Amino acid sequence: MDHFLYRDGVLHAEDVPVAEIAAKVGTPFYCYSTATLLRHFRLFDEALAGMDHLVCYAMKAASNQAILKTLAQAGAGMDVVSGGEYARAIAAGVPGDKIVFSGVGKTHEEIRAALSTGIRQFNVESEPEMEVINEVALSLGKVAPITVRVNPDVDAKTHAKIATGKSENKFGIPIARAREVYARAAALPGLKVVGIDVHIGSQLTDLDPFRLAYRKVADLTETLRSDGHDIHRLDLGGGLGIPYTRSNEAPPLPVEYGAMIKEELGHLGCEIEIEPGRLIAGNAGIMVSKVIYVKSGEGRDFLILDGAMNDLLRPAMYEAHHDIVSVKEPAPGIEQQPYDIVGPVCETGDTFAKERMMAPLAPGDLVAFRSAGAYGAVMASEYNTRPLIPEVLVHEDQFAVIRERPTFDEMLKRDTIPEWL
């Protein structure tokens, strides 16, 4: 469910007409719904009721500070994967003891910053990283809380570029080597083992892969406890998928996911951490774009938009589907026609959809890309010297620009010309 609905023939974001936002900020832009963000966070929080738990939003999905602050005020922790994300979380008012640091390539500088300011735990991805965290912690006179990310060799049955739990993926240590790695961690004086971490991928639409992975984690918990380790926290990652089309069978609900966690892991008495990102932010955001031209081609018509692959990369990178709707509600019974929907970037890959059935559109009409809140703005670039597009947050009948569109002058001033030129 989201809060982007037609009212009086016009798409609204909560109580704000999308066309009103477009008139003020220009197109393209991202628009997020506060009500949807909070609803999705609370669904996860409620799904784990009765267990000691923390829902840590995976902020790589959408990391604007206004979004982080909205979720943090509702009780969310944060899952970060870089020093920059850590700095964003701290700037948004998230306390260090509610920030989990994941990611396969943590640097000395990132580790030092997190330990100096405060961190809930590092999710350790490799033995060399474990040694570095120990070294940095000792240099600061601190002890770093850690989990070890284990790779359970479970096929998440998702897109190859977002699968993380198979043996050939770069993430974590093989679960078969967990005992020796935990033994090494226990011997390092700058580390304190607090639990186990696992994450098998993103956009999962079936609970079975989760169940298989969590059963392996449950067995490992018992084994490590018998080895003398204090395993009291299980970080289960994220990955629950969202419906990108209105026709697809819906993925499992957070309440079903929570019930499965309780069934598979509840007997262990561990604190549970989960790290949803896409399901919290995905359907909470749209990208709004304007039709520049309608072009008749050989056997097909093209809608050429002012939004492009640099603004929304997912279709070009993942062959991802987004429902695309007119901001002005089509009249009942109007005949649709197929369009190839493309952007202005000089790449054939700058194609959002092929032969998509739409009511007839004309230059100046607005369209909205649904389910664009996750991995939209955060993956955008300035390719073709196209400015990063604004982000807007709606709250009931109010809206605010939470990231401005830079001017060309601001972009150009970031370049430095050497003296010899």
TrEMBL record:
This enzyme's EC code(s): 4.1.1.20
Record bears the keyword Lyase: yes
The entry's keywords: Amino-acid biosynthesis, Decarboxylase, Lyase, Lysine biosynthesis, Pyridoxal phosphate
Pathway assigned to this chain's UniProt record: Amino-acid biosynthesis; L-lysine biosynthesis via DAP pathway; L-lysine from DL-2,6-diaminopimelate: step 1/1
Modified residues (N6-(pyridoxal phosphate)lysine): 60
Coiled coil: none
Catalysed reactions listed for this entry: meso-2,6-diaminopimelate + H(+) = L-lysine + CO2
Leader sequence residues: none
Amino-acid positions noted as binding substrate in the UniProt annotation, renumbered to this chain: 278, 314, 318, 347, 375
Cofactor: pyridoxal 5'-phosphate
Residues the entry annotates as binding pyridoxal 5'-phosphate: 239, 275-278, 375
A Pfam family per the record: Orn_Arg_deC_N
Domain of life: Bacteria
SUPFAM superfamilies, alphabetized: Alanine racemase C-terminal domain-like, PLP-binding barrel
GO MF terms, alphabetically ordered: diaminopimelate decarboxylase activity
Residue span, Orn/DAP/Arg decarboxylase 2 N-terminal domain: 36-281
Enzymatic class: lyase
Domain Orn/DAP/Arg decarboxylase 2 C-terminal residues, every copy: 29-373
Chain's role: Specifically catalyzes the decarboxylation of meso-diaminopimelate (meso-DAP) to L-lysine.
Family to which this protein belongs: Belongs to the Orn/Lys/Arg decarboxylase class-II family. LysA subfamily.
Subunit record text: Homodimer.
The protein's name: Diaminopimelate decarboxylase
Native organism taxonomy: Bacteria, Pseudomonadati, Pseudomonadota, Alphaproteobacteria, Rhodobacterales
